[in-house]
Amino acid sequence: MALQLSPHSPLADDAANRDNLVKDVTLKTFVTDVIEASKKRPIIVDFWAPWCGPCKQLGPILEKLARAAKGAVALVKIDIDRDPEIAQQMGVQSIPAVFAFFQGQPVDGFMGALPESQVQAWIDRLMKLTGGSVLPEDDDAVDFNLALEQAAQSLAAHDFVTAEAIYRDVLDQDAANAGAYTGLIRCQIQNGHTAEARQLLDNAPPEIVKDKTLDATRTAVELAEQAAKGGSVTDLESKLQSSPTDHQVRFELAMAYFAAGQREQAVDALLEIVRRSRTWNEDAARKQLVKFFEAFGATDPLTIASRRRLSSILFS
């Protein structure tokens, strides 16, 4: 599939971009400065607070090493007192906490204040993991990125034929492309081909098995298999209308929605159970929501919004 894209080049002028290498980020700018920016280079996210002693030790080290990388990575700092929602969404329980994002996904991280030598080793490993370049310089790599973006848009629009064709085309050229392989699995899931999705998952090439993006896809397959054992959306909606306080029916309806690709409705049903009875069936609804979030991906807009809604219910 021949796709045209204007050529990109690495950031050449470090002085001109110096201010972009270390910046403070808020909830409003998180998507732009972390998710979108990580499609060009790894973004290191430092969760800190003014009262945190170890944060004051780690922060200057991170800033120093991020600048020394000369644009290969960038550092963003998030004050958890000012923006606690982001820390909650990332599951941060203590600080300092450091995450690395690449291609819109968290790929590595560590907790606590490490000495400079260990932080440098971690950044070196991160750069090796992500290819160590600011932007893809190879024309084929750029084409793959554009193709995967187009496939994802087709999948979101339920155009499974186009999405699958693109994913298979990328895999024909790069059999170890994790984005295309996991996309193909998700295509099978949303198309109702759960058995085919399982077969692809179980037969993933060794290079892809090691990729962290497969973890969320594995959860999505397991959820699809669980959902396939339930009833239809129509039948369960009818049952719930007759028994609106039946949490088991609502739970099964959430899974039916998930199987049908109706993600928002699936989340809404589970959140409603949590709202009505937080501890029902040993916290089953909340635990299932966590699985949904893992399957969607930590940076998916639905995950971020739903985590915020869940926190609001739990802590109200």
In short:
The chain is an alpha/beta fold and 316 residues long. The protein is built from 16 helices and 5 strands. It folds into 3 domains: 113 residues, Glutaredoxin; 90 residues, Tetratricopeptide repeat domain (Serine Threonine Protein Phosphatase 5, Tetratricopeptide repeat, Alpha Horseshoe), CATH 1.25.40.10; 82 residues, Serine Threonine Protein Phosphatase 5, Tetratricopeptide repeat (Alpha Horseshoe), CATH 1.25.40.
Please tally the helical runs, counting DSSP H or I stretches of 4 or more residues.
16
CATH architecture of the largest domain: 3-Layer(aba) Sandwich
Largest sheet entry: 5 strands, mixed
CATH secondary-structure class of the largest domain: Alpha Beta
Structural commentary:
Helix 6 (139-156) packs parallel to helix 8. The chain has a 5-stranded mixed β-sheet with strand order 1-3-2-4-5, with helices on both faces. The protein has 3 domains: 18-130, 3-Layer(aba) Sandwich (Glutaredoxin), CATH 3.40.30.10; 139-228, Serine Threonine Protein Phosphatase 5, Tetratricopeptide repeat; 233-314, Serine Threonine Protein Phosphatase 5, Tetratricopeptide repeat (Alpha Horseshoe). 60% of the residues lie in helices and 9% in strands. The chain contains 16 helices and 5 strands. Strand 2 (43-48), helix 3 and strand 3 form a beta-alpha-beta unit. The protein starts with 17 loop residues before the first helix and ends with a helix. The protein has helices at 18-21, 30-36, 53-68, 84-89, 116-130, 139-156, 160-173, 178-190, 194-202, 206-209, 213-228, 233-242, 247-259, 263-276, 280-296, 301-314; strands at residues 22-24, 43-48, 74-79, 97-102, 105-111. The chain is of the alpha/beta class. Residues 1-19 and 133-142 have low confidence and may be disordered.
